[in-house]
Amino acid sequence: MSFGDLRGWIDHLRKEGELQEINAEVNWDCELGTVARKAFGTGNGPALLFNNITGYNKKDARCSQVFTGGLSKYSRVAMMFGLPKDASITELVKAARKAYSGRIPPRIVKDGPVKENILKGDDINLFDFPIPKWHREDGGRYINTMQGNVTMDPDTGRMNVGMYRGMIGTKNTLPVLLWRAQNWGGDFQKWVDRGEEMPVACVYGWEPSLPFCASSPIPPDVSEYDVMGAMRGEPVDLVKCETVPLMVPASAEMVVEGYISNDPSTFEMEGPFGEYTGYFGGDQGPKHKIRITAITHRNNPIFRGTLEGTLPKMLNENSIMSSVQRAALAWNILERSGVPGITDVHCPAANNGTTLIIQMRQRYRGQAKQAAMAIWGSNASHLRYKHVWVVDEDIDIHDYASLDWAFAYRVNAAEDDIIFVPGTFGSALDPSTRLQYRDTLKFGTGKWARVLIDATVNMDFEPQEQYGGERYPPTVRPHQQDLDMVNRRWKEYGFK
Ligand SMILES: Cc1cc2nc3c(=O)[nH]c(=O)nc-3n(C[C@H](O)[C@H](O)[C@H](O)COP(=O)(O)O)c2cc1C
To answer: Which of 106, 440, 456, 472 is the most buried (most CB within 10 A)?
Structure first.
């Protein structure tokens, strides 16, 4: 579904009762983040538009509004896909699967509202924008939280749009977390090999398909712009940047253009940041920075950011988005790899795709292991899918009690139901990995032993005559004929 721009999306949310506007004065310094944390709740809070931010509420402020939480509830992910607000998680996952497989290339236009203001040289000042300090322990004011960083593969011209964190360094520098195993890391390596700085454009505030696609591991040879087009059902209108050879949505709220050098003498301190794991991560250290060459923005731009960091019963946009994105991507990977019989896939919101649960109809021995290996062999598993569960079709993968029962009686470590794959790439932000293995400047990525919990009925077991030809005994679930009779007579027994 297309909304035109961020403003169109906000209007839609307002109409649907999904937006809370906050007109009381709120300080960007930790107060705004805390309001967002409390309002997001357990993934049931509204989207938030802050209209009165300390230090940015005078007439001459360049930017005075912050929007967050657009996708912090499943109902709004449903709205993004044009589905009913009460669509099930599985329906959202199926919609995302379809969008990821679609491609509508962008359309190049000459001009757009994002060019209403063009700042260069001394006029560039990130402090002119009400960028929140989301948490007290954050290393700075995190500007890059819900944006899309546009980069280009210099060999093919393919533009990648990825969401990677970054904070205000100085008025015209933006230190970032640049990992080589991410797609912009791949682009960066190619620019480094050419002995050149990498051009980059950070896009803030557009339709929800931008942050949704920017934070999805789309295959490296595919541009997120094509997938965004498929998701909204029409091409994304792009305009040329002012100082970098890249293109950005013409109706974005704001764009920061610049270059990244690989020369360590240019690095600036970055981190830590309240990360998706729920811990502060990516410790303070010298990191690559964007040397800003231009900022363009609409009149009265609305800054788009988000509060990261998931804890049990404390969900946010990343948790809800990841739950849909990571399940959809995994399902597509399984299908492309030819793993048969997949009936549903789920990533519980509390761990942002670190745990993947696959439900399947088993046809042959080793199918669960085939599924896990297909997932772990994909680039999509870089920061995710540390722990993979596979269960049979009769287990409700959205219900932890059902999984726990399957874990109890269909898992036997002595029967190879728990498999470890050590020494794989992993999240450098996961504190369960020793700090020394999380040095991305040295290793490019983190280090995980991945685990498969195969909670399916063991196909190595012989079918048993006494079990009616099945490998496991019958369950105690009453037969339908008995249930029908008891249901009919229920009131006769004295039950209400
Ligand atoms: C709010 C948010 C912040 C993120 N921050 C980072 C980050 O700092 N570094 C990173 O490599 N990935 C980060 N991610 C995950 C990436 O966006 C994700 O892995 C995405 O697939 C990257 O795009 P790519 O596949 O084109 O590289 C973040 C995701 C979200 C939702």
So the answer is: 456
CB atoms within 10 A of CB 331: 24
Atom of ligand 1 nearest to the CA of 273: 8
* Closest of 337, 343, 380, 373 to residue 358, by C-alpha: 343
- 107-110 own/partner pairs: CB under 8 Å, 24+ apart: 107/235, 107/236, 107/237, 107/238, 108/237, 108/238, 108/239, 108/240, 108/247, 109/237, 109/238, 109/239, 109/250, 110/239
Q: What is the pTM of this model?
A: 0.95
308 CB under 6 A from ligand 1?
yes
Q: Of ligand 1's atoms, which has the minimum distance to the CA of residue 216?
A: 21
- 202, amino acid identity: C
> Which tens digit of pLDDT belongs to each residue from 11-50?
999 999 999 999 999 999 999 999 999 999 999 999 999 9
Reduce the DSSP state of residue 389 to 3 states and report it.
Answer: strand
Q: How far apart are CA 297 and CA 306, in angstroms?
A: 19
Please work out whether the CB of residue 163 comes within 6 Å of at least one atom of ligand 1. yes
- The domain that contains 46 carries what CATH number? 2.30.110.10
Looking up residue 358, the CATH number of its domain turns out to be 3.40.1670.10
* Domain residue limits at 272: 6-304
The length of the chain, given as a count of residues: 496
